[in-house]
Amino acid sequence: MKYVWWIAAVGATAMFAGCGPTYPTGTHLKGSLTYEGTPVVYGVINFAPDTVKGNKGVFGVAECRDGQFQTNPDYAPTLGPVIVNIQVYDGPPPNNKMIANIMEFPVEIPPGSLSWDFKLSAKDIKKIKQ
Fold first, then answer.
1. Rounded distance, CA 125 to CA 6, Å?
2. How many CA atoms lie within 13 A of 19 on its CB side?
3. For 30-61, how does the pLDDT look when each residue is reduced to its tens digit (9 = 90+)?
4. Are 45 and 86 in contact (CB under 8 A)?
5. Which CATH code fits 21-115?
6. For residue 95, with 0-12 CB atoms within 10 Å meaning exposed, 13-18 middle and 19 or more buried, which class applies?
7. What's the Cα-to-Cα distance from 114 to each of 76, 77, 84, 92, 117, rounded to whole Å?
8. Separation CA 92–CA 9 (nearest Å)
9. Of 50, 62, 56, 75, which is closest to residue 118 (Cα–Cα)?
10. Residue 118: is it exposed, middle or buried by C-beta count within 10 angstroms (0-12/13-18/19+)?
11. Which of 31, 34, 57, 59 lies most in the core, judged by the most C-beta atoms within 10 Å?
């Protein structure tokens, strides 16, 4: 009789193994980045899901060189409504200076997109809340 309970417990555990929530995955994205009409020499783009607009996806990051960026497949964002933060530099590290820090830039990247171009200017820079 005690073996019946043990078999039932193992069977129930096996039945529920692998069950659980599924999480959204990121999408590889590439494109161009210009600031004031000029390709960005070096920059960093951070993508965050816009949870206020219902995007419950994953964060992403891309490094921009010579006006072109491409996300790493391991750090690709979930597309849809995202909040983008972009740091624009005058050159690659280690001896670079930040030209602009564009924060909380809302973007709607349609699911299924494989590329996106950012054309930014000084008007896209928000005042820092103090």
1. 64
2. 6
3. 999 999 999 999 999 999 999 999 999 999 99
4. yes
5. 2.60.40
6. exposed
7. 11, 11, 17, 25, 11
8. 59
9. 62
10. buried
11. 57
Supply φ then ψ for residue 58, to 5 degrees. -105, 160
One-letter amino acid for residue 40 of the chain: V
Six token digits for residue 31: 């494109």
- The first and second tokens of residue 11, run together, are 């069977």
Instruction: Of 83, 79, 76, give the one whose Cα is nearest residue 110.
Output: 79
Residue-wise pLDDT for 2-19, tens only, equals 555 555 555 555 555 556
Residue with tokens 């783009």: 45
pTM above 0.85, yes or no: no
